[in-house]
Design brief:
Layout: H1 2-24, H2 31-45, H3 51-82, H4 87-91, H5 93-112, H6 122-145
Helix pairs in contact: 1-3, 2-3, 3-5, 3-6, 5-6
């Protein structure tokens, strides 16, 4: 029973985060919908901001969102794989986590091709992968210090 609890504590956060990313790729978090939150917030913080600047801020916030959600995925994958009870996963945690991140980023963009109000972008996959890779590098550096 303890092994099952350990596996759940290791892999369940990773699986749940992947499910969240899948949901975030639906029309629910399309640019059209996120602008309903970001635009009023920007205008509240900075009244008189031009429409052009609001669009730039909206774009940057969305791209930072891509980077961040995959950085979290990278951290969760690193945590799960590097502490795995399986020697194969434990020894190759970095490359397997990176592979998961890149494949999931590509599948995520492919999924968006089926969603109304969404479109796929290889550049978003690159941002996603960069976020995941950044988290993996930080995780590895911190692990090596311990």
């Amino acid at each position: 029973m303890q092994r099952i609890a350990q596996r759940l504590s290791r892999y369940l956060p990773l699986i749940l985060w992947m499910a969240f990313i899948f949901w975030a790729s639906t029309s629910e978090l399309s640019g059209q919908n996120t602008s309903r939150i970001i635009r009023p917030l920007v205008l509240w913080l900075f009244p008189g901001t031009s429409e052009e600047k609001i669009q730039v801020i909206h774009y940057v916030v969305r791209k930072l969102g891509h980077f961040t959600e995959y950085a979290i995925l990278g951290f969760l994958a690193a945590r799960a794989f590097s502490t795995s009870s399986g020697a194969f996963l434990r020894r190759r945690w970095f490359i397997l986590a990176l592979l998961l991140i890149v494949v999931y980023a590509l599948l995520d963009e492919y999924h968006q091709t089926f969603e109304p109000n969404r479109r796929a972008s290889i550049y978003d996959s690159m941002i996603d992968s960069a976020g995941g890779l950044a988290a993996l590098l930080v995780y590895r550096r911190r692990s090596n210090r311990a």
